[in-house]
Amino acid sequence: MNIALSITKFRRTKLNKYIGNRVVAGAEYTGIKKRLSNLQCDIEQLSLSVPNLPPELAGICLAQISDIHLGEHFHPEHLYEAITVLNQLAPAYVLMTGDYVTDHVRYAQGLIEPLRHLQSPTFAVLGNHDCYCGADEVAKALAQTPVRLMRNQSLELHPGFWLAGLDDILRGRPNLAATLRPIPQDAATVLMVHEPDFFNRVVQEQAPIYLQLSGHTHGGQIRIPRLRAHVQPSQTWAPVLPALGREYSIGLYSVGQRQVYINRGLGFTGWPIRFNCRPEITLITLEPA
C-alpha cells in the first residue's frame, strides 16, 4: 500500500533553522519534499521552554519518531525514507519512543539496515508491541544499529542535561526511581516513555522531569473534528484510543512547568487508515525557561 504525506506545514525558511547555518540547496530541499511525499508524513515543529536547561544549549534541536510498526503495511523502505529525512534535518539527537514492530518479532530484522544509516546520536525505548512480540529480539536488532536502547536507564548528554528512558509501562518492568536515581535534582531532564498517560505519575510524584516524550496512541489514527472552530489536534476527538493513552492522546499538554508531547507515529495498527491524523516526525527546539 502506498503511504502518502504532505509538506504543507513545512516551509523552506523553517528548514534552514533546523539544518543549521549552512545554506539549503534547492536540490536538497526538493529531496526532502520528495521523501516526505513518499511517506505521507508531516514535520511538526515546536519550541519548548525547559527549566534548568543550560544556557549554552539554548536552541538545541531534538527529533522524535515513534510507532514505526514494521509489518504488513509499513516496510523497511518506508523507514529508510524517514531516516534520510532525519539525516538531512540534522538534529542534535534523535529519540525513538517505541513500537518498532506490529504483530511479529520477525519484522525486527527490518529495522537493522535503515537504522544503520542514522547520522545523529539516537536513543530509544521499547513499546508494548515490542514487548509482547519479543522485547529481547527487538533489543538484539537495535543492538546491531547505532541506536542506544534505554531500559530504566539515564544518561548525561551534556553537563546539566540528562536523558532518561523507561521500560514499557504495560508489558515491561518500568522502574522510575531507579531510572532517575543518578540524575541531580537541578538537572534538565527529558524522559522517554512509550505510554503518555504515565505523565500523571510524573506530575503526582513531582518527579524532576519537565519534558516527557511519548507515542503509543498514533494520535488515534482517526480524528473527528468537534462542532466548534477549534484547530488544535488535541481539540478533535478520537473514537478509539489504547489503554494509557486516553488522557493524553496527541500533541502537547502541560501541567504547571511539566510538559508531555505525544508523537502521532509513522506506522499503523489495525486497518492502515488515517483520517485528519497524519504520521509525523517531530522537531523540538529547547530553550531555557
How would you characterize this protein structure?
By secondary structure, this protein is α/β, with parallel strands linked by helices. 24% of the residues lie in helices and 22% in strands. It has seven helices and twelve strands. A six-stranded mixed β-sheet has the order 1-12-2-3-4-5, with no helix packed on it. It has a six-stranded mixed β-sheet with strand order 6-7-8-9-11-10. Strand 4 (122-124), helix 5 (128-142) and strand 5 (148-149) form a beta-alpha-beta unit. Helix 2 (26-39) packs antiparallel against helix 3 and helix 3 (76-89) packs parallel to helix 4 (109-115). It is globular.
Instruction: State the helicity in percent bands.
Output: 10-25%
Count of helical stretches: 7
- How much of the sequence is in beta strands? 15-25%
What separation lies between the terminal Cα atoms? Answer: 44 Å
Structural class by SSE content: alpha/beta
> How many strand units?
12
Number of domains: 1
Strand order in the largest sheet: 1-12-2-3-4-5
Rg, nearest Å = 18 Å
